[in-house]
From TrEMBL:
Keywords in alphabetical order: Membrane, Monooxygenase, Oxidoreductase, Transmembrane, Transmembrane helix
InterPro entries for this protein: ABM_dom, ABM_predict, Dimeric_a/b-barrel
Pfam family, one: ABM
Protein name (Swiss-Prot/TrEMBL): Antibiotic biosynthesis monooxygenase
Domain ABM: 16-105
Transmembrane feature ranges: 129-148, 160-180
Naturally occurring in which organism (per UniProt): Pseudomonas frederiksbergensis
Database matches in SUPFAM superfamilies: Dimeric alpha+beta barrel
Listed GO MF terms: monooxygenase activity
Length: 208
């Protein structure tokens, strides 16, 4: 089993993402997809697992599958990485993989802009800021309006701290799990447009 490369040591109390990249050998696509459905199901039953997204692309002419697994803590993620179930499944998939089992670990907020098109570097900060603004601004305008009628029904809920907590929690959950992943996929061509073409090509063909 390959070792996860930790880019930043997240604390045990924050959500982390495990990014798994598999480049599939030609002719093994159907078998790999069946295997992938199985391991996603197994991972979903692991304690601390919060969800998974699968992004399919191409790399050097082969199908590339990027799986983004979210866990409630570093400990939960490491438990899955070290589990006998995952080890057995990775051993089963090994003959189908061109470059083996590639894993990375990121705090959840860093992943928003990390895996786009297998680029060697993340998008410019100003582009990240623009996409973040487009996602967060509507939430700050609409979520308080949606919560408003409910907060007025109860004196406890209308307390400033309680109301602020509920509104903030709603925004964070929606942004992290729904809107930001969708936005990064939607704006992926624009986010990576400024990167030199030859840089992307050399990265795609480099050994992994």
């Amino acid at each position: 089993m390959s070792e996860a490369q930790t880019q930043k040591a997240p604390g045990s109390d924050e959500i982390v993402t495990l990014i798994v990249k598999h480049r599939v050998k030609a002719g093994f696509e159907a078998a790999y997809e069946a295997w992938l459905r199985n391991i996603v199901s197994v991972a979903g039953r692991t304690e601390g697992h919060l969800g998974v997204d699968v992004i399919r692309g191409k790399n050097a002419g082969l199908d590339m599958f990027t799986c983004v697994l979210r866990f409630c803590s570093t400990e939960a993620m490491q438990h899955w990485l070290d589990s006998p179930q995952r080890q057995a499944l990775i051993d089963e998939a090994a003959p189908m993989l061109a470059d083996g089992d590639q894993t990375e670990v990121n705090p959840v907020n860093e992943f928003w802009f990390a895996p786009l098109a297998d680029a060697a570097s993340p998008p410019p900060r100003w582009k990240q800021a623009v996409v973040s603004l487009l996602v967060i601004l509507p939430h700050t305008l609409l979520v308080p309006l949606l919560w408003g009628p409910l907060l007025k029904l109860n004196a406890f809920l209308s307390n400033y701290l309680v109301a602020t907590f509920l509104i903030t929690l709603t925004i964070v959950v929606s942004v992290v799990y729904v809107c930001m992943p969708a936005a990064t996929r939607l704006f992926a061509p624009w986010l990576t447009a400024s990167q030199p073409r030859e840089h992307l090509e050399s990265n795609a063909n480099s050994p992994r």
